[in-house]
Amino acid sequence: MDTNTKSQRRKKKMPVWAKILLILLIVMALIAGGAYGYVRYTLSKMHRVDPKQEAKIAPNEEFFEVDESLPSETEVPHLNPDEIVWANADPDVMKDRDVVNILLIGQDRREGEGRQRSDSMILATINKKSQSIYLTSFMRDMYVPIPGYSDNRINAAYAFGGMDLLDDTIETNFGIHIDGNVEVDFSGFKTLIDMMGGIDLYLSQAEADYICGRNRNVLYPQAERPDWDLSEGMNHLTGEQALIHARNRSIGNSDYRRTERQREVLISAFTAMKSSDPITLVALINEAMPLLTTDMESSQILGYAMEILTMGVDDVQSFRIPANGMYSSAVIRKMQVLVPDLNQCRAYLREILYGEAG
To answer: What is the pTM of this model?
Structure first.
């Protein structure tokens, strides 16, 4: 199993309890001053969808994103779809009033494009019992049953049926309840990170070279930026640099390391946001809202935000599904995929998110 990734702690200008109290007092003052409507207006800038009304493609229109190059059969087994037999899973879906699961769905589409496969799927969990926040990445190359369609990569569910089908796919296969969804336009993240003054991240030398476009070739597609002086160790990244880093799947273990990078960027951004002054926070929220699409009501979002503030969380733990030892690699339908042991993954998720075995 993975070792929990701890966020880097940043020195704060005031104690956490004092900052929480200050923010609460400001919110109370705003509401008392009649600004509650402004808060609702700000949240209304988010795009909203009704998952049940999202368009779905017909099963006979489903498609498979085949890989241009594949490993040989001596390297990775090549299997027929009917060779994959799924174990009978526990039909119960885990739900707890003290545990909130919000699925963050990354979209990296270009202007004018419609709904695409989910570029990343990160489950943000608020556990009020343990006073913890967890980020769990679902590997997009996992090969799973998709309700109403053929088995496919898990990220196909979003392209086929939006939030509703992706939630159904995760709940059916992994036995955890999804309370809400937020689609994130990651291309807009660079503006938010710049507004926070950048973020601090540890980079390997290879990652630093990738961002700066050094030794440019197939693995280093970035245009060279000699003015970017990044090296191995802790670096202070701009929004553009952080976005390049989060998209990088060429350095390290392909999508495994890529999902770790995405979580690291989110955790560092969370840390930087907590250190922002109230005026900057308001500006960040205004800038962020149009980048988000959700199926949640404003009252839900406000409630979750207040819970996070009152918890006073100092760090965020991160995980990955499938964890090490919980999958096998295969080539199916001309796709190199990860075939998860669903029962192992279910038990692991219930343990880390809910603190319950099995």
So the answer is: 0.77
